[in-house]
Amino acid sequence: MTDATRFTTGADLLQGYSIEVMPRTAAKIDDFKTLLPVGTRVYIAHIDGTPFKDMLATARRLTNDGFEVMPHFPARSIPDIATLNDWIARYKNDAGIDQALVIAGGNKKPVGDFTSSIEMLQSEAFHKAGFKRLHVAGHPEGNRDIDPDGRTTQVDAALRWKAQHAKDTGVEMAIVTQFMFDANSASDWISGLRRDGISLPVHLGLAGPAKLQTLIKFAVSCGVGPSLSVLKKRARDLSKLLAPFEPDDILHDLARNTQANPDAAPAQIHLFPLGGIKASAEWASRQGAGHLRRVAG
Fold this sequence. Notes:
With 297 residues, the chain is an alpha/beta fold. It has helices spanning 3-6, 10-14, 23-26, 52-64, 81-95, 117-121, 124-129, 153-169, 183-195, 212-221, 228-235, 238-241, 248-260, 277-286, and strands at 18-21, 41-44, 68-74, 99-103, 133-138, 172-179, 202-207, 268-272. The protein is globular. Keywords: Oxidoreductase.
């Protein structure tokens, strides 16, 4: 059964969704088990300045609660190979982690030995880590840190390398994307990957419910490009300006697109809880994602 035949509705798309947390936001949640389906994949975002012990404690807590935990490994924020080895060992030994998101990170200049996620994947530390699953970043609207000219030449080449790396090493790999607000451009991007021979599953990023001003602020800081116009158009409608933005329409359009074009189908949805973890989890539940059904990828 193809992704497209599974995704007849937005609720289908959301089954098995993942979500991202930070230690300081996770600390505000008394019981994740009352919010998220058991077994949900929860990413531990790496925010520069957050002590590693806090990220490790959050990972341990969520693992003990029965969730699949995937910590961030941002290449440009890691000072040296010794630190990388230490993080890997502590995540694995202290929190039972067997999967990781490998990204370059938001720093324009590296603080240490690694300038890219590819360099980190090539390191002996990751060869010895034995992670069963690795996720890498995708940018449906490009990434000007990597391609300053606005094209996607370098990011496309990087994804081709990573897809080949997954084949060569046998590791399970998927692409998790930055959030966006234009379903059509996201679907076109996935279709483009398939035409380019990149078959890695795509976990498409959506921003959870949040105030419009909050979303615009995050979109600008994270480099979200063309789909930012969707938010700006909404901001011009005074009747919608103060109401929380919910990604219902995006979800509906994605489901419609996957039915029309199987090559546009994402494997899963990844939620960025910019308006709060509780708000995103409750929105997903209202959409029908009340139980976990992990799908391939």
